[in-house]
Amino acid sequence: MEAAGKVTSIFVYPIKSCRGISVSQAPLTPTGFRWDRQWMVINNKGRAYTQRNEPKLALVQIELPNEAFLEGWEPTGSSYMVIRAPGMQALKIPMSKPCDIADGVSVWEWSGSALDEGAEASNWFTNYLGKSSRLVRYNAESETRPVDPEYAAGQITMFSDGYPFMLLSQGSLDALNKLLKEPVPINRFRPNILVDGCEPFSEDTWTEVRINKFTFQGVKLCSRCKIPTINQDTGDAGPEPNETLKQIRSDKVLRPGRKQRGKIYFGQNMVCKDNLTEGNGKVLKLGDPVFVLKKVTSAAEAAA
User: Fold this and answer.
1) SS3 of residue 20 by DSSP
2) Which of 227, 241, 240 is closest to 54 using CA atoms?
3) Against a cut of 0.90, is the pTM above it?
4) What does the DSSP 8-state code read for residue 207?
5) What number does CATH give the domain 5-13+148-303?
6) Domain-wise residue ranges, the chain
7) What separation, in Å, do the N-terminal and C-terminal C-alpha atoms of the chain show?
8) SS3 (DSSP) at 115
9) Distances (CA, A) of 256 to 149, 249, 262
10) What single string gives the DSSP state of each residue in 234-261?
11) pLDDT digits over 50-86, tens only?
12) How confident is the model at residue 279 (pLDDT cuts 50, 70, 90)?
């Protein structure tokens, strides 16, 4: 079997809606890549802030220890996540688990309790965003956040919007950029896995792929909100690329015979079908080949 492409970038987003980290490898867990969307910033009602309402989050940079992406690594007392933003002092968050609990935390349809990263983090984000904020961490010991069972029953995630993984191809980005006056970088779309070597938008049709020795299920086309319109270097929003995506990637164009929801699609939401809780070697790496095991004929046939 010939590979459809290979993994050319892996991105992990430790704090929801803040900047991602490009890594050469990432351990797989049942909720996605390790450290992905394990933290989020919440308001005084416990609701998640995202770039949709707080575009300044795009400018918050995260740094984890390099060894955090090695298999089997565990934080020590001197392991920190370092958070930086324009005009702010660097904030250091210990990577060992905090002990305070924040109740009534919610992201989209899910609510539960989370671990509270404390007063210093709260003050930092409150000052940066100019409104009451706290930084919380997903508490895997006490909480479970299932993905939509209609699409992937039995799968779980942390604070991602909906699914543990999002895959996009370089071909799709290149095809879109050919239509834009000003090309946009991949960070507008916040994928976890970028694949190169396949035809534009071929990932729409992938319902089962093997990457390295792991089997991923393409569960639904990724519908896009306004975040792709936010310049990740400045936090400023504009009409593109969503205006162009409406012309080429709306459900009206891709799925004319299906129920119309007024959505635009770019990328594929995925879950890993393997048991990721036990054993070694659960790591994806740059250069891993991608094999398509099952696919549908077109985006019209894909789940969305």
Assistant:
1) coil
2) 227
3) yes
4) E
5) 2.40.33
6) 5-13+148-303, 37-142
7) 28
8) strand
9) 25, 11, 11
10) T--B-STTHHHHHHHHBHHHH-TTSPP-
11) 999 999 999 999 999 999 999 999 999 999 999 999 9
12) low
